[in-house]
Amino acid sequence: MKRRTLLVVAPVVTAALAVALGVALWPSRDAWASSCTGEISPSRQSAEVKDAARAIQSAARGASAGIAMVDLTGCTDVAGANASALFPSASVVKLLIALDALAGKESDPAGLERMLSLSDDKVASELWTANGGAAIVRRMNERIGLQHTRPPARAGRWGETLTSAADVARIYQHISAKLPKERRIALTDALSSAPRTAADGFDQYFGIPSGLSDREWAIKQGWGSTDDRVVLNTTGMVGGKHKYVVVVLTSWPKNTSWPTATKAVTKAVSELHGLVGSTSLP
């Protein structure tokens, strides 16, 4: 699997994106909608979440994790560990890039679908540059009410946007409960159609897709490296008797191999299996 640094910058584009790749799908039902508009702070400790954190920490000396789980159906905190700690977002920031693009006057459905499902960096870079870079993060912080998320310190390195597991959970809560239906369907359909192999050749099916393989999911994964750390994030909504948000953000010493990190993140998610309800969306 490939390692990529957490930056991609494209030339400024002044017209609508000309990304003619991928096909935006429009399902017949708004499968991931919820009425969860209340304030949630994922901080409850449980045996399962402690085991999940231990799966990361025991895999490599110096590894760390931030975990958040929210029940969107009951609008309650399920579990959390280190949920307010900051981690590089890697491609998870593409959720904010997409939300910002959809809120603007022009957006390209095929390009957004490709950016989210295939985790296409080229589309993300074009949107990041065209829509103001760090201003995207600031606008979305204000709109969603994110408490910890910060733009990257180095301009253009959108994957170095810092965020927390609690904030990522708030992003999914916003998508499920506050986003207009048409925009929500555009996003969640792309997230639920993510293929195993990403645009850069990376295997995206670590964490949620493998650790909760008997659940329906809508995911945004992240992977890459900073100057001194390896980053691997699994985030998304999973379906059961209730709908849940599951977020596991992880940071690893620079010499950590991808197999070591992906195996540990999948094990961490599997430890959360008992906290998720039955096996199909209502």
Question: What does the model show?
Answer:
With 282 residues, the chain is an alpha+beta fold. The protein has helices at 47-57, 94-103, 109-117, 121-130, 134-144, 165-177, 181-192, 208-211, 258-270; strands at residues 64-71, 76-81, 87-88, 162-163, 217-225, 229-239, 243-253. It contains 9 helices and 7 strands; from the N terminus they run H-E-E-E-H-H-H-H-E-H-H-H-E-E-E-H. It has a 5-stranded antiparallel sheet, with helices on both faces. Helix 1 runs antiparallel to helix 9 (258-270), helix 2 crosses helix 5 and helix 3 (109-117) crosses helix 7. InterPro entries: Beta-lactam/transpept-like, Beta-lactam_cat, Beta-lactam_class-A. This is Serine hydrolase. Keywords: Hydrolase. It comes from Allokutzneria multivorans.
Question: What is the compact description of this entry?
Answer:
The protein is of the alpha+beta class and 282 residues long. The protein has 9 helices and 7 strands, in the order H-E-E-E-H-H-H-H-E-H-H-H-E-E-E-H. Residues 8-28 and 278-282 have low confidence and may be disordered.
